[in-house]
Amino acid sequence: xxxxxxxxxxxxxxxxxxxxxxxxxxxxxxxxxxxxxxxxxxxxxxxxxxxxxxxxxxxxxxxxxxxxxxxxxxxxxxxxx
Length: 81
Fold this sequence. Notes:
Low-confidence stretches: none
Distance between the termini: 70 Å
GO cellular component, one term: actin filament
Shape: rod-shaped
Coiled coil: 33-60
Largest sheet: none
Number of strands: 0
InterPro entries: Formin_Cappuccino_subfam
GO molecular function, one term: microtubule binding
Number of domains: 1
Order of helices and strands: HHH
Helix content: 55-70%
Keywords: Coiled coil
């Protein structure tokens, strides 16, 4: 495994020890986990802001609807389709 990742032994040692390999792996995993949490918080914050802006925009535009008269020309044309 050490050859695959290109690890070199510490100065004064002849081979890469498993302790050294797993120490590097643990540090990488801890850094990755911290970065992952930061990115997730950032993305969720952006998503909440986007949802709030959509709510604000749609809340400002109130569309008024009314019933269509059943005998109107538009309704008769829709029924023919």
